[in-house]
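call fold(seq) -> tokens
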Amino acid sequence: MKKLVLLTLLVALFGTVVNAQVKIGVMGGPSFVNFTGSEIKEWGSLDSEPSMKVKFHLGFYFIYPINDQLSIEARILYSAKGPQYSGNAQEYDDQTFEMYSGTKTITKQLSYLELPILVNYKVHEKIVLFAGPQVGFRLAANARSEFTGTSQGGSTLTTDKTSNQNDYYSGIDFGLLVGIGYELSDKLGVNLAYNPGLSKIAQYEYEGEVTKYDVKNSAILISLRYVLKQ
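ret:
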């Protein structure tokens, strides 16, 4: 079902591009990502709040002009998301049969195909304000766990593991995108945007029942844009 919805959206978007005079460009840059919500601390399992990570986004944009000030913009973006948790932890090593106490870092590694639909309003010759809804389709979800600890006997243990977390994150993420753009030239521009999540993405399934947790994606995006066709 998710693939059908995604295919329908992409076909509609490219149909618009083919049949209209639109500006087409590429964009990308760093994303400052984190989680928000009342249960983000519990979700990390280290009794700590998540910390922001710098990741990235990359994709295409299509702008359909309505008049001199208003336009509709659609984007297709690959976005890497997911913050980092750090805290004290214990690990048991089944090779040495010892318990180790130390510090652990868990980095959430989420990736999405995101489709924002925005209304652009030009407030100045070179300045544009934009806002609109966004839907994201989860491509992958992993967690990287790094641990360093010491046993009572004085030996040390260092581990670095990555686990598949697809079952713990919903397949679709709804959000908003609001921001400001500045045109450096006819071809080059830069955007600053805030991307708050609206839907709970964390989940746990037990005996066929799915429990949702109040954990949402959040990102601040800095994008460099280049016009391919106008």
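The chain has one domain: 2-229.
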